[in-house]
């Protein structure tokens, strides 16, 4: 059995500040570098921000439920929709997918941790501090109010005099650093740390889709970094990059933003595509239909996703050639997406379907994402898009793909992997309530927005008036009210999930080892997984390795069970590696990450504070560099048994 | 910098690891190449901004009125030579020749510092000739682009000097040769970016 008990007490590296010696209680979480703990912390953070963003959404819908809404004034309404979108995109969906990726990628490829465990911890803390930093603006003079894509001149000091946009720009820099570090870390992990035999085309689909996403992040984030720097220099140091009066080209911001922003859309959706590509085969009792097609269509989305950004700008007068090119590329990107939908449908076809909550959410994604995808194709037709730009039709479209797509996929993942992460099953009955309320709620909320938009209701308008709402079936008053009621039903759906989590934590059913009859490597370990994931690193011979260890063809070509999950696990345990060193906990990731918001506050309020933040960053960078990632044996207190084995970070 | 400094530390995990990894590259090296890939996009954005705005001088000085091409050529040459000395440092590190490694690292840092010093001098001269940061779109985008590059060189200087200190006190946790090589990769990247920036700013007329 592994001697991981020893790893709790490495000490000394920098003299002044020793390594964390105790890893119990809160310290076990704050100084951890374990990818599973960090994954859970990512998910908890994301869930918190989901509730914050949800509250903002409800306030928006309450304001618009009836004519001449009085709940928010115009200024607060602007802040509300800006922060709703910013929170949902950057602080909910992105961290939630990062949480899934952190937790499951090492398990799915048969590794014991990520390539750079401390950078992983740093990414999490930077995300958390960045998210809190952006929201700090609510209490310091008002939040950002220029819409989530922050077009000039709305982002300038004349239209946005509070510090909200400064907090927004600097906070997104911090979360951007987190994303960038995380992306590099996970790409190296996936490419370099696969178990023996885990070829690229044997990797589980979730890992594949995450790989595409991390590449998109790695190359999209630097572009918005530039844009945000330019914006900050304009607001704080007198530059005029987006100021038309000074001869600037405001389209520069739009291009930079959407070169980031459109790959960002795929960053949000592809992890959910990966999740349901795991869920659908398991609950259809069939392998995924056309695995290579799903892989390559995902990669194709990743490539073509770089060539469609200007379809967000059709109304800005790009000229006929640009518009034609981006129209066509936008139509083209629907093809690989359609390929995926067909693959999922054919995975279901002829399968023994098992309608668990995870499966319901996965099927919900197929249906609702398709609706959103189709309205997306209508945007590729530039003349029609020009009519729809900045109306509720757009709002309807991206909520169908993001809520109906990304969010339903994430919920599917919660129900599917909860037993893996916590060893307990989420309640299926409450899960069903959760699912139906969410699906009905989201269709009631976002469905009518198609009508509102085609009738011409602009987005971001803080009030509408009775006498311009029209009459008959398509009158705005009725459908605005329906949408607002729908949002409350949606809230009840989310509430069922929280209740479910609470009840499961208190008295949930303990999960069997293999509750769903799963197919991939992450299920070949205990629930929840051991600290070091696998007692011995499995050698992979098949796509769906776990399934093939449980089932084999008999003489008649029928699949027969040859081993139970318990037997498969026992075999790994019997061959356990003698000595396993896990990467040691460290203070530096959280200290370094803490320097970032301090510096950012200094940029807004006072130069000495910024210098102080810079000193924290530099000091912790040196502490970090001088501290070995895995404590050497001599560094243990008490000294470990004297064996010198190490390097488990790098099995493979 | 957070990333590169982690290289120093995690080299430990992989000093014998290249043969074990799925690609045959060590984690650190693969990570460094990816990081430099992201840097291309960062400089890509900054260069695009400069190219868009370099003709928009407003009432401020035009590029040809302030730029001192012979001076910048000399400091560019100094920076390029630092790539040569960096290669010699990496080569010495692979030969486990600590004395030469040390020497070449110090010379590289001196050359880099000369370049940064030249940049500070040039910025001061431009400012005195009436080209402030917010004078025109051209001046803002010029200072942002070259300033970002200067910060990158400065970060490289800090890493070179820190590395020298750590080598001397035997504090590098992991493969010394690979750590030197990683900082070398970063250093060469910063030099290559300068070749592009210098060409676009000074050699191609606006």
Strand and helix layout:
The complex is a heterodimer of chains A (652) and B (206).
Chain A: H1 27-30, H2 35-65, H3 74-109, H4 117-136, H5 164-192, H6 205-237, H7 251-284, H8 291-304, H9 320-348, H10 357-380, H11 382-388, H12 392-422, E1 424-425, H13 428-454, H14 476-507, E2 509-510, H15 545-550, E3 551-553, E4 559-561, H16 565-574, H17 588-605, H18 607-626
Antiparallel strand pairs in A: 1-2, 3-4
Helix pairs in contact in A: 2-3, 2-4, 2-14, 3-4, 3-5, 3-7, 3-12, 4-5, 4-17, 5-6, 5-17, 6-7, 6-8, 7-8, 7-9, 7-10, 7-12, 8-9, 9-10, 10-12, 10-13, 12-13, 13-14, 17-18
Chain B: H1 2-14, H2 27-53, H3 63-66, H4 69-94, H5 98-128, H6 137-168, H7 176-203
Helix pairs in contact in B: 1-2, 1-7, 2-6, 2-7, 4-5, 4-7, 5-6, 6-7
Specify which chain pair forms the largest interface. Answer: A-B, 59 and 49 residues
Which regions of chain B contain 5 or more consecutive residues with pLDDT less than 50? 1-19
What kind of assembly state do the chains in view correspond to?
heterodimer
The coarse silhouette of chain B is elongated
Pairing-aware structural class of the strands and helices of chain B?
Answer: mainly alpha
CATH level 1 class label of chain A: Mainly Alpha
Going across the major beta sheet of chain A, what is the strand order?
A: 1-2
Descriptive overview:
The complex is a heterodimer of chains A (652) and B (206). Chain A has one domain: Cytochrome c oxidase-like, subunit I domain (Cytochrome C Oxidase, Chain A). In chain A, 62% of the residues lie in helices and 2% in strands. Chain A has 18 helices and four strands. In chain A, helix 10 (357-380) packs antiparallel against helix 12 (392-422). The longest helix of chain A is centred in the first third of the chain and has 36 residues, at 74-109. Chain A starts with 26 loop residues before the first helix and ends in a 26-residue tail after the last helix. By secondary structure, chain B is mostly helical. Chain B has a single domain, classed as Four Helix Bundle (Hemerythrin (Met), subunit A) (Up-down Bundle). Chain B is 78% helix and 0% strand. Chain B is built from seven helices and no strands. In chain B, helix 1 (2-14) runs antiparallel to helix 7 (176-203) and helix 2 (27-53) runs parallel beside helix 7 (176-203). Chain B is elongated and about 60 Å long. At the A-B interface, helix 4, helix 5, helix 6 and helix 18 of A face helix 1, helix 2 and helix 6 of B.
């Amino acid at each position: 059995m592994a001697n991981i008990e020893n790893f709790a007490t490495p000490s000394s590296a920098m003299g002044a500040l020793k390594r964390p010696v105790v890893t119990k209680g809160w310290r076990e979480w704050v100084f951890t570098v374990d990818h599973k703990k960090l994954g859970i912390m990512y998910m908890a953070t994301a869930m918190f921000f989901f509730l914050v963003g949800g509250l903002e959404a409800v306030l928006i819908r309450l304001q618009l439920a009836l004519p001449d809404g009085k709940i928010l004034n115009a200024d607060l309404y602007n802040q509300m929709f800006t922060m709703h979108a910013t929170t949902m995109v950057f602080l909910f969906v992105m961290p939630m997918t990062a949480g899934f990726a952190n937790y499951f990628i090492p398990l799915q490829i048969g590794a014991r941790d990520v390539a750079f465990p401390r950078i992983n911890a740093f990414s999490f803390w930077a995300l958390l501090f960045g998210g809190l930093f952006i929201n700090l603006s609510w209490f310091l003079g008002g939040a950002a109010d220029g819409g989530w894509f922050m077009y000039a001149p709305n982002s300038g000091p004349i239209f946005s005099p509070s510090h909200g946009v400064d907090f927004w720009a600097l906070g997104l820099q911090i979360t951007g650093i987190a994303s960038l570090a995380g992306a590099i870390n996970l790409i190296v992990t996936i490419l370099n740390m696969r178990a023996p035999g885990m070829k690229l085309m044997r990797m589980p689909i979730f890992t594949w889709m995450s790989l595409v996403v991390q590449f998109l992040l790695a190359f999209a984030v630097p572009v918005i970094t530039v844009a945000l720097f330019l914006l900050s220099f304009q607001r704080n140091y007198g530059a005029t990059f987006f100021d038309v009066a000074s001869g600037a080209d405001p389209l520069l911001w739009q291009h930079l933003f959407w070169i980031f922003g459109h790959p960002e859309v795929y960053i949000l959706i592809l992890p959910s595509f990966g999740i349901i590509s795991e869920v659908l085969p398991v609950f259809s009792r069939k392998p995924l239909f056309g695995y290579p097609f799903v892989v390559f269509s995902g990669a194709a989305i990743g490539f073509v996703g770089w060539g469609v950004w200007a379809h967000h700008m059709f109304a800005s007068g790009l000229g006929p050639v640009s518009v034609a090119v981006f129209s066509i590329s936008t139509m083209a990107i629907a093809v690989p997406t359609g390929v995926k939908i067909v693959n999922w449908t054919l995975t279901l076809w002829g399968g023994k379907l098992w309608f668990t909550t995870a499966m319901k959410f996965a099927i919900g994604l197929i249906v609702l994402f398709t609706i959103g995808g189709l309205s997306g194709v209508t945007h590729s037709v530039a003349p029609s898009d020009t009519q729809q730009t900045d109306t509720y039709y757009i709002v309807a479209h991206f909520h169908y793909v993001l809520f109906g797509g990304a969010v339903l996929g994430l919920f599917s993942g919660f129900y599917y992997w909860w037993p893996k992460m916590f060893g307990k099953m989420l309640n299926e009955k409450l899960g069903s309530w959760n699912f139906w309320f969410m699906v009905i709620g989201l269709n009631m909320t976002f469905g009518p927005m198609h009508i509102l938009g085609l009738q011409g209701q602009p987005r971001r308008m803080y009030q509408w008036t009775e006498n311009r709402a029209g009459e008959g079936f398509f009158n705005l008053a009725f459908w605005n009210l329906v949408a607002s009621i729908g949002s409350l039903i949606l809230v009840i759906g989310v509430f069922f999930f929280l209740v479910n989590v609470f009840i499961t934590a208190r008295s949930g059913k303990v999960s069997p080892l293999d509750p769903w009859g799963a197919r991939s490597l992450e299920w070949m370990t205990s629930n929840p997984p051991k600290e070091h994931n696998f007692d011995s690193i499995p050698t992979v011979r098949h796509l769906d390795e776990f399934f093939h260890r449980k089932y084999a063809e008999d003489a008649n070509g029928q699949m027969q069970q040859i081993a139970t999950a318990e037997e498969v696990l026992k075999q790994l345990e019997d061959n356990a590696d003698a000595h396993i060193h896990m990467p040691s906990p460290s203070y530096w990731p959280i200290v370094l990450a803490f320097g970032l918001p301090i510096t950012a506050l200094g940029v807004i309020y006072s130069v000495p504070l910024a210098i102080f933040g810079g000193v924290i960053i530099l000091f912790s960078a040196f502490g970090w560099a001088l501290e070995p990632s895995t404590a050497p044996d001599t560094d243990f207190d008490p000294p470990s048994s004297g064996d010198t084995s190490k390097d488990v970070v790098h099995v493979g | 910098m957070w990333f590169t400094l982690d290289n120093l530390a995690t080299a430990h995990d992989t000093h014998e690891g290249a043969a074990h990894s799925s690609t045959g590259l060590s984690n650190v090296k693969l990570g460094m190449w990816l990081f430099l890939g992201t840097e291309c996009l960062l400089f890509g954005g900054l260069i695009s901004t400069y190219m868009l705005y370099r003709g928009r001088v407003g009432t401020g000085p035009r590029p040809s009125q302030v730029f001192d091409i012979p001076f910048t050529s000399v400091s560019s040459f100094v920076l390029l030579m630092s790539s040569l000395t960096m290669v010699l440092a990496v080569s010495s590190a692979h030969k486990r020749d600590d004395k030469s490694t040390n020497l070449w690292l110090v010379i590289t840092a001196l050359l880099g510092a000369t370049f940064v010093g030249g940049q500070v001098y040039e910025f001061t001269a431009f400012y005195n000739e009436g080209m402030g940061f917010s004078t025109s779109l051209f001046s803002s985008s010029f200072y942002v682009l070259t300033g970002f590059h200067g910060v990158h060189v400065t970060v490289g200087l800090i890493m070179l000097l820190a590395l020298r200190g750590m080598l001397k006190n035997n504090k590098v946790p992991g493969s010394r040769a690979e750590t030197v090589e990683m900082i070398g990769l970063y250093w060469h990247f910063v030099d290559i970016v300068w070749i592009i920036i210098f060409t676009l700013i000074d050699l191609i007329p606006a």
